[in-house]
Design brief:
With 147 residues, the chain is α+β, with helices and mostly antiparallel strands. It folds into two domains: 59 residues, Ribosomal Protein L9, domain 1, CATH 3.40.5.10; 78 residues, Ribosomal protein L9, C-terminal domain (Ribosomal Protein L9, domain 2). Helices cover 34% and strands 31% of the residues. Strand 8 and strand 9 form a beta hairpin.
């Protein structure tokens, strides 16, 4: 029996693949568990349409991410901070603070995308990577200066 997989199934296939499986496996496990449905001509046509829509959506999302990555790559952000006598700053500059500053500039970034080993606690320039979906990455420069 041919079925259309509705989810990724280990050792069988990926979502929307059309697979030939034993009748009993399909009727007793895959279909009742809503992991697959019978592959008739109508279902195959619908799945092909869904696949094309998802591919188009993924391509559009990738283009948006590429534009955003290009927009912020190499950007310098200056952050004034109160400092102690030994050039340490009071408090620290965290991923969340960086995301907040970028959002004020009209760039919406989740703080989880910002790769910062530890919060910044001193004045100077720091290179910070921002990782996006699809393996894209941009780098910004954080300049911490005394107030």
């Amino acid at each position: 029996m041919q079925v259309i997989l509705l989810k990724d199934i280990k050792n069988l296939g990926k979502k929307y693949d059309i697979k030939k499986v034993a009748d009993g496996y399909a009727q007793n496990f895959l279909i009742p568990q809503e992991l697959a449905k019978p592959a008739n001509s109508d279902a195959v046509a619908k799945i092909e349409t869904i696949k094309k829509n998802e591919e188009t959506k993924a391509e559009n999302e990738l283009k948006k991410i590429e534009i955003l990555a290009e927009k912020i790559d190499g950007r310098e952000i200056v952050i004034p901070a109160k400092i102690t006598k030994d050039d340490k700053i009071y408090g620290s500059i965290s991923k969340e603070k960086i995301a907040e500053i970028l959002e004020k500039d009209g760039i919406k970034i989740d703080s989880k995308q910002i790769k910062l080993n530890s919060p910044i606690k001193e004045i100077g320039e720091f290179s910070v990577a921002i990782r996006f979906d699809h393996g894209l990455e941009a780098e910004i420069i954080i300049s911490v200066i005394p107030e």
